[in-house]
Amino acid sequence: MNQNEKTLIAVLNGTKDSNIAFGDLQKLLTALGFAVRIKGDHFIYTKDGLEEIINLQPKGNKAKPYQVRQVRQIILKYKMGDDLYV
């Protein structure tokens, strides 16, 4: 199981929202096909076909729990992540 799979499971599980590494969440979004642009400490993720925009900011080296929940909602809404499993 690679790191993206582990991060996806942690995000979807919802029990570790305050303990997801910011870098791991960024790698997951990139693996899911999101494009990023950076403005200061804001990492703004977009993807063709999605109306939502994900705006992430690190809290130290962790992702903010409410932003992890937002990512989870988008992954579930659009049924993403099946292609990450080998």
Comma- or semicolon-separated keywords:
86 residues, alpha+beta, 40% helix, globular
Please, could you describe this protein's structure?
- The protein is of the alpha+beta class and 86 residues long.
- It is built from three helices and five strands; from the N terminus they run ααβββββα.
- It has helices at residues 3-13, 22-31, 65-77; strands at residues 35-39, 42-46, 54-56, 58-59, 62-63.
- The protein has a three-stranded antiparallel β-sheet with strand order 1-2-3. Strands 4-5 form a two-stranded antiparallel sheet.
- Helix 1 (3-13) crosses helix 2.
- The chain is globular, with a radius of gyration of 12 Å.
Number of helices: 3
User: What is the number of beta strands?
Assistant: 5
**What is the alpha-carbon Rg in Å?**
12 Å
Topology as H/E string? HHEEEEEH
How can the largest sheet be summarized? Answer: 3 strands, antiparallel
> Strand arrangement, largest sheet?
1-2-3
Strand content: 15-25%
Mean pLDDT across every amino acid position: 94
Shape estimate: globular
Question: Which residues form runs of ≥5 with pLDDT under 50?
Answer: none
Alpha-carbon distance between the termini?
8 Å
Please give the share of residues in helix.
25-40%
